[in-house]
Amino acid sequence: MVKIAPSILSADFSRLKEEITSVKSAEYLHLDIMDGRFVPNITFGPVVIKSIRQHSNQIFDTHLMIEEPERYIEEFARAGSDLITVHIEASNHVHRTIQLIKNSGCKAGVSLNPATSLNTIENIIDDLDLILIMSVNPGFGGQKLILKTIDKIKKLKLMIKESSTETLIEIDGGVNFKNVEKIAKTGVDIIVSGSTIFVGDPTENLSKFRKILRNSEQVE
Ligand code: DX5
Ligand code: ZN
After folding, report:
1. Contacts of 185 (CB under 8 A, 6+ apart)
2. Domains in the chain: boundaries
3. Given pLDDT bands bounded at 50, 70 and 90, which one contains residue 218?
């Protein structure tokens, strides 16, 4: 079944430990790092990751929305990331950045903004553990999903099949209880959710997502 990766971007940061504990049954925890340059918002850095690492055994899925991510890979790896994703639009030598991530002991992902074509990853697809497809313009939680992304994921699924790699597909932004079933049908592996999980009761919201996904599988 497709996995849900809660994004703490919409969590209450004054109760971060509690918030993380409330979604501990999720295999992945999505960490949105924003620098106020690549995206018009600033979040948190390695210091926060390091302190929450002590309270979670989840796979830390670090999404770097920062310029020149290569400058910070080692620091984010040392802080406790398991998977580091950089934006293809933010790195001039993305192939080198991917090697840097792997050499730091992490799995490597590349993310594509909504306007970025799948052609941009054609030559690196075999090197990637994960491709993160942005379904909103990165920077903020609670935005509306851009529908065109659904076709993009279907195309990517075919690209991965043809290249016979094991690369996972993750979707990020605007996923809610209404559209999750449609998204799961694209063959995506991981679904990020921020506001739908953390507004209200996160444990309940996570179960609700899983219930919808289970039911939709039974229909198949
Ligand atoms: C947006 C972030 C997302 C965000 C998703 O730039 O990358 O991970 O937290 O939030 P929702 O699920 O609220 O769209
Ligand atoms: Zn994200």
Report:
1. 216
2. 3-219
3. low
Ligand 2 centroid–CA 133 distance in Å is: 10
64-111 pLDDT, tens per residue?
999 999 999 999 999 999 999 999 999 999 999 999 999 999 999 999
Nearest to 62 by CA among 53, 54, 12: 53
Which of 1, 14, 22, 49 lies closest to 183 in space, CA to CA?
Answer: 1
| Region of residue 154 (phi > 0: left; psi between -120 and 50: alpha; otherwise: beta) | alpha
Instruction: Report the residue among 43, 195, 198, 209 best suited for mutation to probe ligand 1: largest number of ligand atoms under 8 A from its CB.
Output: 195
Q: DSSP class of residue 200? A: S
CB 31 within 8 A of CB 211: no
Residue in the block written with tokens 């990853």:
121
Is 3-219 in CATH node 3.40.50.720? Answer: no
Average pLDDT over residues 134-162: 98
End-to-end CA distance of the chain: 13
In order of 66, 106, 133, 167, the CA distances from 77 in angstroms are: 15, 7, 22, 20
Nearest ligand, measured from the Cα of 199: 1
Q: CA-to-CA distance for 42 and 164, rounded, in angstroms?
A: 37
Task: Give the span between the Cα atoms of 72 and 79, in whole angstroms.
Answer: 11
With beta carbons less than 8 A apart as the criterion, state whether 63 and 31 touch.
Answer: yes
Q: Whose alpha carbon is nearest atom 6 of ligand 1?
A: 138
